[in-house]
Specification:
Elements lengths: L1 E6 L4 H12 L3 E8 L10 E5 L16 E4 L5 H4 L2 H21 L4 E5 L11 H13 L6 E6 L3 E2 L7 H13 L10 E2 H14 L3 E6 H4 L3
Parallel strand pairs: 1-2, 1-4, 2-3, 4-5, 5-6, 6-9, 7-8
Helix pairs in contact: 1-6, 3-4
Length: about 210
Amino acid sequence: MKTALVAGSTGLIGSQLLQLLLNSDCYAKVIALTRQDLPLLHPKLVQVKVDFGKLGEYNDELKADDVFCCLGTTMAKAGSKENFNQVDFYFPLLLAKTSYSRGGRQFLIVSALGADTDSSIYYNRVKGEMEEAVSQVGFETLHIFRPSLLLGPRTEKRSGEDAAKFFYKFFGFLIPKKYKAIDALKVARAMLHVAIVETKGTHIHESGDLQQY
């Protein structure tokens, strides 16, 4: 059986994914990279407290077959473009490079609907640049997931997202499938499913396609 590594395991998608990986018979060990201890105990779980800006200094802690990156923030929470770029571009790319050099074979990363290096929207442009940079690392298999607005229980309030969720609740039937809000659990299920299938190459999964999981 394989070893999985998860970054961003306290987030909306990452927390769901962590539970799925722990319950999966395909993984004998699940490494969770965290900044603080998780309130979770499991015989397969190995928690590794890291400084995401210094991942290159870690060795055996980052050895895994399948690497799942669920790191991400918002412009409002980041507070500046520099901080946002660090979390959504630099950290994921550093994780990809470091885990690849430690023997990683599959890299699965959460991006966003609309990711595009040529986008006039800064958020989408950074996501597109991240996708392009990660695709150059060299993994046998790369899966990029581009969810729309995420649904699920968050620990922090996001007023803009709350308003959007209210709209989706009553008018979601008017919105094309590609743009519909999506439950974070569906994204997590999709990540586990494609990791188990192990289809080599680079694959981009748009939000509409993720609704089936």
